[in-house]
Inverse folding.
């Protein structure tokens, strides 16, 4: 294996997280906890660092500050009661987990064929809106980690306009609980498409200015080009997906490779970049913003105006699903998210397991990238890997 | 990836059927279920799981470990490990499921095949109590720092009893069910009339 493995480092005991007995501690080495309370950390996690000067010698990711036992909770509840739980698995992007829950149980119960055409279009719409708003947030967060304040203000404002649309459509700005078994909960409100189109125009109009502030900025280029390069051979060894993979020049995207919902009917390209550094990952996200806008416009044009948006559902209090197991996946803004779903013929889930890209990005990849990294680049690296703690500890 | 004995998988019209046929030829006739175009489930005996995974990893395009998780089949006295391996270039995944004796919850590590397995195995070790000898982070807390109880994802772990034990009731109350106290104060319907 070509990947650096810090556990083989001499003189370091992983269990006690201390140097082995008899090992001389380097007097120049400083141990530092980066997070869980730190403006540069991505959510409720921490990275335990060993530093020499401002160079990181090694580090360990610690999660668990946000563990709420979602998977266990879902095993003890009726199927319909899981929606308020799954949306919390990734705070910024709840629609993907809602879709995964709905589609996995629909598949096991045979309800998947009953989802109406319009329900599928509306699901595709919110999934893509969700990808867009998170990508805007991450673009801003990326430059924010370098002390550049203007671009985050712009991207967060643009994201807020999209949250207005979510609020109008679903009733919630952050947690939507819009996708349900058999389709979605409600239809578009009158004039929604025009208002969303206006928001897309507003975002699109700002993109050249954001390019000047971010990708064309000499400061940003110096801080990101050639920094935190993810080696290409890690792609398959570590199961990398999403923008981190596409920044290596690998054109893989769950929406195209494992078609679901209405994506096969849409015209979109898989955005890639080369370099595999923070700059390349930002380039991919910038291109994906434009592509998401393009996709949403197509959806608004192609979606049927009339028709049911949700199938007739069984009684949710007595609904049982035959025994079986499956794996469903969808492309979130971070990469492939998937649900392993196991049912046993009862009215509750037997076992559900979320496979999220952060699981690999925040632990396996990050820990192997840390040795030799300058501490000033750590926040930017974590944002570029889009590490999302609730998705790791569920 | 080229399998010298059987030709290139990429040329096969149905990759799922073809890979299952080759696994059957090499390792035995395991039950297989073709769930959808990109997903095949195989139930593999415990003794065969590492040879099958090693072969898939080194000699076929199934190079990615997409996830590894466990299911507790308490009534059967077994755990089930579920390995999802994916051929990203062929866009097909295999769900390899293996049953373990619950009384001897131990399985071989796949850390040597996929480095990321260390975290999956660490979590399963913590949450289900399944031991993976040789995996680097066995016994190292991942999510549950300072946990002293039964592994909590086991089906016989009683969450209510754990809460009662761990979090004492507030003074003046006999138990944790807040509905009773809300009812006493606000009426049975739980709101002020």
């Amino acid at each position: 294996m070509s990947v650096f493995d810090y556990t083989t480092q001499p003189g370091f005991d992983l269990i006690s997280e201390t140097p082995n007995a008899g090992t001389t501690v380097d007097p120049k080495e400083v141990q530092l906890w980066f997070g869980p309370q730190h403006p540069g950390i991505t959510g409720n996690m921490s990275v335990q660092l060993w530093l020499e000067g401002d160079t990181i010698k090694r580090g360990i990711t610690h999660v668990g500050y946000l563990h709420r036992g979602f998977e266990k909770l879902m095993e003890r509840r009726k199927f319909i009661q899981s929606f308020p739980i799954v949306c919390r698995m990734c705070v910024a992007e709840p629609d993907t987990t809602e879709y995964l829950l709905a589609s996995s149980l629909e598949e096991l119960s045979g309800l998947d064929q009953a989802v109406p055409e319009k329900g599928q279009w509306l699901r595709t719409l919110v999934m893509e809106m969700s990808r867009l708003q998170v990508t805007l947030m991450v673009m801003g967060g990326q430059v924010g980690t370098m002390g550049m304040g203007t671009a985050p203000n712009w991207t967060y404002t643009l994201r807020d306009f999209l949250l207005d649309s979510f609020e109008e459509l679903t009733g919630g700005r952050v947690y939507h609980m819009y996708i349900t078994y058999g389709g979605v909960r409600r239809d578009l409100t009158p004039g929604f498409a025009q208002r969303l189109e206006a928001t897309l125009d507003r975002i699109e109009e700002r993109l050249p200015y954001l390019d000047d502030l971010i990708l064309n900025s000499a400061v940003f280029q110096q801080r990101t080009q050639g920094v935190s390069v993810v080696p290409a051979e890690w792609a398959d060894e570590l199961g990398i997906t999403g923008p981190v993979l596409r920044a290596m020049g690998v054109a893989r995207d769950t929406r195209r490779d494992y078609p679901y919902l209405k994506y096969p009917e849409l015209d979109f390209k898989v955005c890639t970049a080369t370099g595999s550094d923070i700059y390349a990952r930002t380039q991919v996200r910038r291109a994906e913003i434009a592509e998401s806008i393009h996709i949403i416009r197509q959806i608004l044009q192609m979606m049927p105006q009339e028709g049911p948006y949700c199938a007739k559902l069984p009684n949710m209090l007595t609904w049982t699903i035959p025994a079986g197991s499956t794996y469903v996946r969808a492309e979130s803004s971070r990469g492939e998210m998937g649900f392993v779903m196991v049912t046993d013929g009862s009215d509750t889930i037997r076992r559900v397991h979320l496979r999220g890209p952060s699981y690999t990005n925040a632990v396996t990849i990050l820990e192997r990238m840390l040795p030799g990294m300058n501490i000033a680049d750590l926040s930017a690296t974590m944002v570029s890997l889009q590490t999302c703690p609730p998705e790791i500890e569920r | 990836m080229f399998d010298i004995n059987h030709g290139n998988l990429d040329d096969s019209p149905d990759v799922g059927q073809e890979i299952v046929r080759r696994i059957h030829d090499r390792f035995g006739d395991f039950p297989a279920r073709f769930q959808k175009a990109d997903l095949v489930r195989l139930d593999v005996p415990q003794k065969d799981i590492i040879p099958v995974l090693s072969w898939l990893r080194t000699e076929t395009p199934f190079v990615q470990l997409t996830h590894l998780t466990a299911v507790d089949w308490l009534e059967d006295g077994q755990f089930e490990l579920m390995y999802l391996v994916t051929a990203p270039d062929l866009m097909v995944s295999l769900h390899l499921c293996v049953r373990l004796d619950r009384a001897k919850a131990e399985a071989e590590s796949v850390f040597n095949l996929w480095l990321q397995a260390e975290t999956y195995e660490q979590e399963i070790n913590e949450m289900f109590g399944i031991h993976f000898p040789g995996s680097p982070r066995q016994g190292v807390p991942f999510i549950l720092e300072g946990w002293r109880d039964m592994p909590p994802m086991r089906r016989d772990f009683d969450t209510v009893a754990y809460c009662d034990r761990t979090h004492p009731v507030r003074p003046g109350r006999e138990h944790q069910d807040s509905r009773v106290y809300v009812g006493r104060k606000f009426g049975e319907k739980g709101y002020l009339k």
Observations:
- Chain A has a mean pLDDT of 89.
- The domain at 70-393 of chain A is CATH 1.10.645.10 (Cytochrome-c3 Hydrogenase; chain B).
- Strands of chain A lie at 12-13, 18-19, 29-34, 46-52, 55-62, 179-180, 183-184, 324-331, 336-343, 349-355.
